[in-house]
Amino acid sequence: MNILSIETSADETAAAIIEDGTKVLSNVVASSKELHDKTGGIIPEVAAREQIRYIIPVIREVMQPFASTQGKQLTMNNIDALAVTIGPGLNGSLLIGVETAKTVAFVTGKPLIPVNHIFAHIYANWLDAPILPTFPAIALVVSGGHTELFLMHSHKKIKWLGGTLDDAAGEAFDKTARVLGLGYPGGPAIAATAAKFQISNFKFQIIKLPRPMISSKDLNFSFSGLKTAVMKEINRLKIMKQFNNETISQLAYEIQESITDVLIKKTLDAAIKYKINSILLGGGVAANKKLSEKFKFKIENLKFKIDLHIPPPFLCTDNAAYIGSFAYFHNIPVPWNQINAQPDLTVEV
Ligand code: KG4
Ligand code: ZN
What we know:
The chain has 349 residues and is of the alpha/beta class. The protein contains 11 helices and 10 strands. Helix 2 (44-62) packs parallel to helix 3 (91-108). It starts with a strand and ends in a 20-residue tail after the last helix. The structure holds 5'-O-[(R)-(carboxyoxy)(hydroxy)phosphoryl]adenosine (KG4) and zinc ion (ZN). Residues 117, 121, 143, 283, 318 line the site of zinc ion (ZN). Zinc ion (ZN) is lined by residues 117, 121, 143, 283, 318.
């Protein structure tokens, strides 16, 4: 079964064609990230306008011949169903993808499957995967807007275990990067700046940041205090005339350590509590190299076996491939005229 999927929840305009939920036949992502770098974050109106510019070229491109389609141009005859992200996300951005998908469904008569972007992030783990995940599993979705832990007994039985009480992990990267003047998106910028510290100055770490809620008994997170802690450190360093490239890279290092320590601790707490087989990561922050290295190290040192699944970075950040995979495993089409963008769609189930 081939699904043509569309994703436009924020600043990426994406389309993909996925065979049987697992094989990526084609995958195209256009991003307006560079425009948002200038403003230090997404301006919704700007993102929506870029979505309109990109959506048709992206869909046309996804039908082009690819190695995975044996060099064949795909047509609507090759497509069995359509899928689209309906939320959560920015209203203006979502509307472009949703209304485009509805139009294609109306014109072609193909079934249209509405998709919740947050759950869908988990399904990057089923795409072109060397080993498919097994249940029960703990899934951690860490993106710009969400930090959520789920217990998955099966595709149909998914329980929300906890999430952030305030800022998401990606948001913490983005906000702290902004106060350090490192640009947008903050995650890759913090990672690159942190790497400079590890190479040059490992022995002289003078900056320590808190690990928010790391010892709380629940499976919730809180990252908003991190930005305040970073701002306090910046002020302290400025007074001591020590705010320079070296201390900026130390701060970036500590930000990354703090966020990854908390994410790993809570995920492993859940894994141990529910005696699961697999841990599945998804969302833009799962592209963080330090996070995957630390996760691997921790899991190798556990007394029991857990399979760790982390998608390649290009499938962690927003794309339509995982939207198509989710739609295959949750194949519930809805008549196109009953589908609407839902910016505030939640995940608590
Ligand atoms: O999943 P995503 O592409 O979009 C949303 O659904 O939000 O996630 C974007 C978030 C941004 O906050 C960005 O800073 C973060 O993912 N991110 C990273 C990395 N790449 C993207 N965070 C840490 N390390 C990275 N390498
Ligand atoms: Zn996302």
